[in-house]
Amino acid sequence: MTRVRWAFADGLTLVGRELGRLRHDPGELVAALMFPAVMVVLFGYVFGSAIQVPGGGDYREYLMPGLFAMVTFSSVMGVMTRTAADASRGVMDRFRSLPMARSAVPFGQTGADLLIGLLMLGVMVGAGLLVGWRARLGLGPAVQAVLLMVVLRYALAWAGVYAGLAVRDDRVADALVPLFLPFTMVSNAFVPTGGMPGWLRFLADWNPVSALTAATRELFGNSDAPAGDPAWPLAHPVAAVLLWSAVLLAIFAPLSLRAHRR
């Protein structure tokens, strides 16, 4: 228990360090908070004018859960670049020379990202309310949807920590960021998967982005159930999100801790 308390206290210190770095570099925080609002305007008004929602309805309301999922998955990119920057500039070596818990650095990175993600989510909720989006089923299901996003974002942050420690170069990490965009686009976040070719639809249906989008649409009451015979993640999206979160944590948390110790 003493070691657990020690690791927890050191982790909180590293969370404060990450948030303090944003205070000294406010441009990074402003850019992160502007991103959700820009996505709402870009996809909701520019692309949304040419896209029809199956069965009718407002495209912006259909779109918002997909944008929530997209912002959730930005965790991987943000944590990867910050971790790689620390590794390339020798900060990790300095941390390893200090009398601190070895697990504190990964926990600090993931904990700080969770707080940043909540801020981004709050900005996106505000932008969605301004363009007409609403949580139709009330407060309880809406809170459940937010908790799902928080759980999956935290699991994805561990994947970002491992990727950053594997890359160990902030320039390479920045170059890899665009590769994550197709991962979020090949999903049901922006258009239904029913019109996709069979092989692409399979990838989209089993994409965790699709599971989170379907789960939040269901909990926010923003769309009907998927038509036809949907894949298991779309038929049981909440369970699929929880399963994806557990798998990601089980894989990347041990890998990240081992990579940091090495």
Write a concise keyword list for the protein shown above.
0% strand, 12 helices, single chain, mainly alpha, globular
Topology overview:
Layout: H1 2-24, H2 26-47, H3 59-88, H4 91-96, H5 104-130, H6 139-167, H7 170-176, H8 181-185, H9 198-205, H10 208-220, H11 232-235, H12 237-261
Can you give a write-up of this model?
This protein has 262 residues and is mainly alpha-helical. Helices cover 76% and strands 0% of the residues. The model has no long low-confidence stretch (mean pLDDT 84).
Which range best describes the helical content: under 10%, 10-25%, 25-40%, 40-55%, 55-70% or over 70%? over 70%
The SSE order reads HHHHHHHHHHHH
Q: Which regions are unreliable across 5 or more consecutive residues at pLDDT < 50?
A: none
What is the domain tally? Answer: 1
Structural class: mainly alpha
* Number of continuous helical runs: 12
Biggest β-sheet description: none
Mean pLDDT over the full residue set: 84
Q: Radius of gyration, rounded?
A: 19 Å
Give the beta-strand count.
0
Strand content: under 5%
| Shape designation | globular
Tell me the span between the first and last alpha carbons: 25 Å
TL;DR?
This protein has helices at 2-24, 26-47, 59-88, 91-96, 104-130, 139-167, 170-176, 181-185, 198-205, 208-220, 232-235, 237-261. With 262 residues, the protein is an all-alpha fold.
